[in-house]
Amino acid sequence: MAFFSNLLWVLLLVVTESPLRSHNATPDRIPSTRSCTNYALQENLNSFLWLVKRNPPAYFFGTIHVPYTRVWEFIPSNSKAAFKTSQYVYFELDLTSKPTVNALWKCQMLPKGGLLKDVLPRSMYRRLQRHLRYIKKRIPMWLKENDGEYYQGMAPYADKIFQLLTKDWQKKRPIWIMLMVNSLTESDIKNRGIPVLDQYLASEAARNEKFTGAVEEVEEQCQPLNSLKDTQVVFALNQTLNFQEKLRVGKAHLAYTTDDLIDHYNCGDLTSFLFSTQSTRLPSISSNFSLRQLELKRTQEIDQYLRTELIFKRNERMAKRVIELLNKYPERNFFFAFGAGECYYHPHNHHHDLCCHRHRCF
């Protein structure tokens, strides 16, 4: 699920100013497709840009892991100027590095050449197969526009797209299968091939001969997910499949969509939207009260584990490394681009960081 990396900013408060407000810093901000007053008072909106008080300055910019074309024109000029004038640009991971990409792929695979069918209960494996067959049939329809024409000429590649999105799924760990299932949506599939904002910034940094770096290692992102107990992962995947099966027949709906997330980001407001959804909130489908209570307890256990590992511990680790860089290189003008919405496991959320991979991945 997505929410702001609070602890990272808290640890840096001793050297930073408050977020730069969009109404002061960027009078030319382009309005969102929706009225921003739907989300927050204008004076509470910001440009997701933080200034570190030093000379030369250093900046923190909150990114969003969606196609950059959906948000780039809405990003305020002060954020773009900070990126343009900074020579040292750091991300969470260096996704332009082939070893990093290979390590991300490897961490998703079952150990010792294992197969998913030998890990999951047989009935669950068959349900997964049925769902993937459903997705494969839907992709050609998702690629059609309202007028019946194919979206950006992609229809001939429908099978190829499916193969790419589900590559090696029979060999992946169940936790990554769960994340994969949630990424197989109409919106995400239509936007495949368009770099997400982080990737676009990385490519622009390389094109302008900026120095790029990362504050995390692949293993640090993979290990917490891969360390979940088998029973927890099977439970989570089962709940995910339950929800997707209901979604397919119209008996469930997404709590929010990628479009909702983008609208909030373009309006400079993630707080009211994301802070209100800070639990995994796995769907409870049993009519038996005691079983619902057991499901809730398991959900809370997973939520607390991931919150501790992927939010608090991760942010503290990242913050320490950022501070080390600032202290070690006082002459460098840094620009740190980290996800304003740190996405992790949420069966209702088809907008991913870690699968993004996301993925992800990440």
Structure description:
Helices cover 46% and strands 7% of the residues. It has a five-stranded mixed sheet with strand order 1-2-5-3-4, with helices on one face. It is α/β, with parallel strands linked by helices.
Main beta sheet strand tally, sense and closure: 5 strands, mixed
Radius of gyration: 21 Å
Distance between the termini: 13 Å
Mean pLDDT: 78
Report the total helices: 14
Overall helicity: 40-55%
Within the largest sheet, what's the order of strands? 1-2-5-3-4
Strand content: 5-15%
* Number of extended strands: 5
Which shape, going by the Cα principal axes?
A: globular
Low-confidence region ranges? 1-19, 21-33, 275-288, 342-362
Order of helices and strands: HHEEHEHHHHHHEHHHHHE
Provide a short characterization of the protein structure.
With 362 residues, this protein is of the alpha/beta class. Helix content is 46%, strand content 7%.
Features:
5 strands, alpha/beta, disordered C terminus, disordered N terminus, 362 residues, 7% strand, 5-stranded mixed sheet
